């Protein structure tokens, strides 16, 4: 009679389980040595969200502008075209740098890199007129993105980049003798078409005659839209924000009235008319905030002015400072306004930057962001 089957002792069962685990480990090691292993999915490139798409698009456009401007410079264009293209290239590099550069996930590139011995192809020639078209298109893109992006600080930076591109486009158009592009910011949801040929004709004159709009007749250039008084305050701005706009415009109006008294001829007319429109804008923002006619109205009877205003150099320097101050105020508030409500602020930044340039301000890479002035190179003096 055979012995009855008995379950293994507990200590024997434990040894068998340990032996099985050890065998599995040895097998896994052996298989890995033979090049066989369990497959794991490769890492996936993350999909950019809406904010990253704006940032990445602005970087790509900046680098593209810099590259094409340098390609146009390779043909040695005459001044003042060369000077403006030099700024387009330099400012494009700075814009890309401040925006964080091209995104790199750290994942391996699926596309093999070119051989180290392969020579880079010579970039094709680019005409300055093509750079102007690119500047115009990229400025419009940046204006639209700055208006609608959800991230406030990014909206401010992209808005500054947009204002820089607008200024560069206007300067390059002037240098080429081409019509100035219409680059006024427009509220989200509008297509920006007005039945015109795309040139800026807000003063009712033909911009192809090469005249400069420094006669003070262009209300849009003064940052004053004829229909703006009917607009409500941009969503997201506080009473303090609106008071800052009121004060900036009122101080500019006061100062330019004094400037007008010190100058003569066309410069006096420009200063006087622009001062009147600044006063109008100050009233508009005071009405929008509810401060007009109250004890809280931030406007003052007089503002401090520099000494030596009998010197025309001091006088024009004051005009530049006042307009730059208005631009900085608009630029600062871009970060606070709600998405879709920034068009009026973008247009204020654009117009104040243009007016400051009219008074001889040096072109800067980041209008409305004085804290970034130190990162900008010294631009080449231009006639544009």
TrEMBL record:
Domain (DUF4439): residue spans on this chain: 250-371
Biased composition (Low complexity): 110-120, 188-214, 225-235
UniProt feature, compositional bias: Acidic residues: 215-224
Pfam families registered for this protein in UniProt: DUF4439
Composition-biased stretches (Basic and acidic residues): 272-284
Family matches, as PROSITE patterns: PROKAR_LIPOPROTEIN (PS51257)
Chain segments carrying region Disordered: 103-125, 179-235, 272-294
Signal sequence, renumbered to the chain: none
InterPro entries (UniProt xref): DUF4439, Ferritin-like, Ferritin-like_SF
Name this polypeptide is given: DUF4439 domain-containing protein
The organism of origin for this protein: Cellulomonas fimi (strain ATCC 484 / DSM 20113 / JCM 1341 / CCUG 24087 / LMG 16345 / NBRC 15513 / NCIMB 8980 / NCTC 7547 / NRS-133)
């Amino acid at each position: 009679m055979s012995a009855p089957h008995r379950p293994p002792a507990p200590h024997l069962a434990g040894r068998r389980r340990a032996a099985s685990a050890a065998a599995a480990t040895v097998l896994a090691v052996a298989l890995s040595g033979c090049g066989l292993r369990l497959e794991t999915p490769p890492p996936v490139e993350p999909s950019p969200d809406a904010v990253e798409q704006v940032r990445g698009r602005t970087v790509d456009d900046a680098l593209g502008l810099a590259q094409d401007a340098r390609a146009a410079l390779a043909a040695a264009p005459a001044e003042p075209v060369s000077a403006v293209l030099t700024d387009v290239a330099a400012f494009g590099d700075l814009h890309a740098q401040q925006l964080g550069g091209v995104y790199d996930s750290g994942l391996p590139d699926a596309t093999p890199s070119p051989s180290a011995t392969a020579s880079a192809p010579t970039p094709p020639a680019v005409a300055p007129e093509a750079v102007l078209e690119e500047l115009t298109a990229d400025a419009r893109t940046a204006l639209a993105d700055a208006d609608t992006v959800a991230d406030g600080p990014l909206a401010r930076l992209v808005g500054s980049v947009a204002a820089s591109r607008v200024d560069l486009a206007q300067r390059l158009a002037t240098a080429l003798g081409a019509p100035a592009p219409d680059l006024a910011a427009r509220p989200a949801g509008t297509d920006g078409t007005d039945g015109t040929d795309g040139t800026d004709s807000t003063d009712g004159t033909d911009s192809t005659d090469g005249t400069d709009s420094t006669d003070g007749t262009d209300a849009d250039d003064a940052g004053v839209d004829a229909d703006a008084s009917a607009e409500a305050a941009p969503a997201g701005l506080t009473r303090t924000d609106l008071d800052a706009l009121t004060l900036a415009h009122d101080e500019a109006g006061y100062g330019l009235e004094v400037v007008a008294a010190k100058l003569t001829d066309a410069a006096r007319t420009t200063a006087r008319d622009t001062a009147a429109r600044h006063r109008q804008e100050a009233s508009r923002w005071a009405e929008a905030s509810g401060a007009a006619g109250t004890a809280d109205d931030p406007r003052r009877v007089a503002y401090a002015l520099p000494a030596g205003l009998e010197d025309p150099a001091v006088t024009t320097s004051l005009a530049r400072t006042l307009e730059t101050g208005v631009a900085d105020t608009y630029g600062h508030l871009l970060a606070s306004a709600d998405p879709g409500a920034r068009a009026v602020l973008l247009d204020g930044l654009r117009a104040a930057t243009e007016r400051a340039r009219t008074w001889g301000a040096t072109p800067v890479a980041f209008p409305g962001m004085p804290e970034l002035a130190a990162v900008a190179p010294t631009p080449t003096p231009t006639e544009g």
